UniProtKB/TrEMBL annotation:
Residues 2-51, 54-339 form the Amino acid transporter transmembrane domain. Belongs to the amino acid/polyamine transporter 2 family. This is Amino acid transporter transmembrane domain-containing protein. GO terms for molecular function: L-amino acid transmembrane transporter activity.
Length: 359
């Protein structure tokens, strides 16, 4: 479930992040931020065990997608939808594979071959602070799996085994993201697009998007269920309605996921930019739950003894670093994203809100 929730369309912004940061810094960022995400997820898991026991119009296509997503989110239990995870994971891996192969063949068959691809080990020339930080924010977004841990651990037979899940997912993400970003960037160069499917050519990109459709619906429905469970469980904290096994429970559950789906559709259609939308989400939400809140949890709930004691000093330093990194993503990411959005609007590189363009 963690793999399905985490490795989704966010992977498609990876090559463009490499184009901004360069091959060396791109690889370093994806590996190091991935390791930080594993560590903060470990803290969140510990806290959970601490507290457990208590030519179709794109606009129309988006609406149809929202309806499908809403129906897939009807099951209130992750166990009921987990079987679709195999389809989801296979579809995104195949779609990424199609893109890598297509861009590799296209570059090899071009005049001069792969040697003429305009990629660099260093950041691109004249890269601004905002451009670099938007790229970093997209990397942060790709490692945002910690948000769903509380909900997933509620259904685990043995919650103490959560470390197996986060290490499996974390290492898998680091490998997939680094290989995907590095290879597509090496095949396409600075002209790589976001989402990366668009770099594979008109026909192949449509094939890749078609193969990746399950990712949109299944991963989206899982996030809807996560949000619905968090809200529904707190509204009916002391009532049997929270288990969604009564008429009232089903009525309130269906109403809630319908509202969440409509809200998500409005956000998706009203905000006309992809990478900057990921940057905003990373800065406002992922930076907190995935980075600067876990160190606070460690200091307040897990740490035993003084922070400067021999047993705690190293972890105290690590947690302070992670906390500062999270704050940097929050402030720097939000500032950079706003600057980038203004620049895109000024140059006319943004479609209109609720615009009806061909799919």
């Amino acid at each position: 479930m963690l793999i399905v929730e985490a490795i989704a369309l966010g992977a498609l912004s990876i090559p463009s992040a490499f184009a901004t940061l360069g091959m060396v810094i791109g690889v370093i960022c994806y590996v190091e931020i991935g390791l930080i995400a594993i560590y903060t997820s470990y803290i969140i898991g510990q806290v959970k065990l601490y507290i457990t026991g208590s030519d179709i119009c794109s606009l129309l296509f988006g609406g149809v997608s929202a309806i499908i997503l809403r129906f897939l989110a009807i099951p209130s239990s992750f166990a009921d939808i987990a079987i679709f995870g195999y389809i989801d994971f296979a579809s995104i891996i195949i779609a990424i594979g199609i893109t890598i192969i297509a861009t590799g063949i296209g570059s090899a068959n071009s005049i001069g071959g792969l040697e003429t691809v305009n990629w660099s080990a260093l950041p691109k020339e004249d890269v601004s602070f905002s451009e670099a930080f938007v790229a970093v924010s997209n990397i942060v977004f790709a490692y945002s799996f910690a948000t769903c841990q509380f909900s997933f651990m509620d259904e685990m037979h043995t919650p103490e085994d959560f470390t197996k899940s986060i290490w499996t997912l974390g290492i898998l993400e680091i490998v997939i993201y680094t290989i995907t970003g590095a290879t597509i960037y090496a095949f396409v160069g600075l002209d790589v697009k976001s989402p990366a499917f668009l770099s594979a050519g008109d026909v192949v990109s449509k094939v890749a998007f078609g193969v990746a459709l399950p990712v949109i619906f299944i991963s989206g429905s899982i996030n809807t269920i996560v949000a619905g469970r968090l809200i529904h469980g707190r509204i009916y904290r002391n009532s049997v309605t929270r288990y969604v096994n009564t008429p009232k429970g089903w009525i309130t559950w269906l109403s809630l996921i319908s509202f969440i789906t409509v809200l998500a559709w409005i956000i998706a259609e009203a905000i006309p930019f992809f990478s900057d939308l990921l940057g905003i989400a990373s800065a406002l939400f992922t930076s907190g739950f995935s980075f600067y809140w876990p160190p606070v949890m460690w200091f307040m709930l897990i740490r035993q003894g003084n922070w400067w004691s021999k047993d705690n000093l190293f972890l105290s330093i690590v947690n302070i670093f992670v906390f500062l990194f999270g704050l940097m993503v929050l402030m720097g990411g939000l500032y950079s994203t706003i600057i980038d959005i203004r620049a895109n609007y000024a140059t006319g590189n943004v479609r209109g809100a609720f615009s009806c363009s061909p799919v």
